[in-house]
Amino acid sequence: MRRTPIIAAIAGFGLLGLGVAPGYAAPDDAQLSVFHGVPGLKVDVYVNGKLTLDDFKPGDLAGPLKLAAGTYTVAITAADAKDDSSPAIGPVDLKLAAGKNYTAAAHLTAAGKPTATLFTNDISKIAAGDGRLIVRHIAAAPAVDVLAGGKPVIKDLMNPKQAQLDLPAGTVSASVAATGTTKPVIGPADVMVTEGSDTIVYAWGSLTDKNLALGTQSIAGLGSAPAGVPTGTAEVKDGGAAQGMLVGLGALLLTGVAVFGRKLRPATNRK
Questions:
Q1: Where's the DUF4397 domain (predicted)?
Q2: Would residue 69 count as lying in a domain?
Q3: Region 164-183: what's the mean pLDDT?
Q4: Which of 13, 141, 247, 271 has the fewest CB neighbours in a 10 Å radius?
Q5: Is 253 inside any structural domain?
Q6: CA of 47: how far to CAs of 94, 105, 144, 183, in Å?
Q7: What is the pLDDT of residues 139-172, one digit of tens each?
Q8: Which of 255, 223, 230 is nearest to 133 (CA)?
Q9: b or e along 146-180 (b: 16 or more beta carbons within 10 Å of the residue's beta carbon)?
Q10: Dihedral sign, CA of 170, 175, 179, 181?
């Protein structure tokens, strides 16, 4: 297996599956994670013409890389390609700003075509006692509504958009339905909200091909912890087919279910 670092400043790369937290990026650096959400396609990832990820498998998450601010050209090829001259996705230019945290996701469009999306991760401070939940729809699947008490609180969440909430830490529950309907397709489902952390869920795969799955990224150290707490731990968890995707979309965006008696704050839908 070939492994070529993008630059010497890459720290913590490949440690995520072991739960190892990388250190802080310098103030003039950016942090970049990469999520592979194209089912059935093992790939190599090239950055600025250099092989950075070798035999990257669907559902894998790598990073965060600590990179100098600037523009990076990313090309995704079939596994073990000789070079990046015939990419399956890209090349695409990713402009990274100093002090920002990003995730580049290779995924399918709603119509099932391979593409890539650069998400800017919200690393703003979270109020004491709260956690932040973000869901990203990057699957070849239609839009969904998230239901609370049988009523939609998030409407028409489409590929490749996201919605987020800052919530009291603890367990939340939700149901989901096809957009415009109120009959739950799945749920209620529960998820733990961690204080001072982003929990980011990627719904990926293809509804038609029945291989929908979930990937989860977490970014810690966003609460009132003292300076020096790491802010970039991440992990991946795969769910099962269509049920997994809908559970993830529903479970991560609701905290107003009566059983918990919590007040739902407005969600933000955006790219």
A1: 30-146
A2: yes
A3: 75
A4: 271
A5: yes
A6: 10, 14, 34, 45
A7: 888 897 766 567 776 788 899 999 888 888 877 6
A8: 255
A9: bbbeeebbbeebebbbbbbbbbbbbebbbbbbeee
A10: negative
Residue 189 banded pLDDT, cuts 50, 70, 90: low
Q: How many domains would you assign to the chain? A: 1
pTM for the structure as a whole: 0.71
Cα distance between residue 10 and residue 64, in whole Å: 8
Identify the domain containing residue 199 by its residue range. 16-260
Please, what sign has the CA dihedral across residues 221, 226, 230, 232? positive
- Determine, yes or no, domain membership for 158: yes
Cα separations (Å) of 131 from 96, 220, 226? 25, 10, 17
The proportion of the chain whose per-residue pLDDT surpasses 90, expressed as a percent, equals 42
Q: Which among 214, 262, 267, 206 is positioned nearest to 237, based on CA atoms? A: 214
pLDDT tens digit sequence for 60-118: 999 898 999 999 999 999 999 999 999 999 999 999 999 999 999 999 999 999 999 99
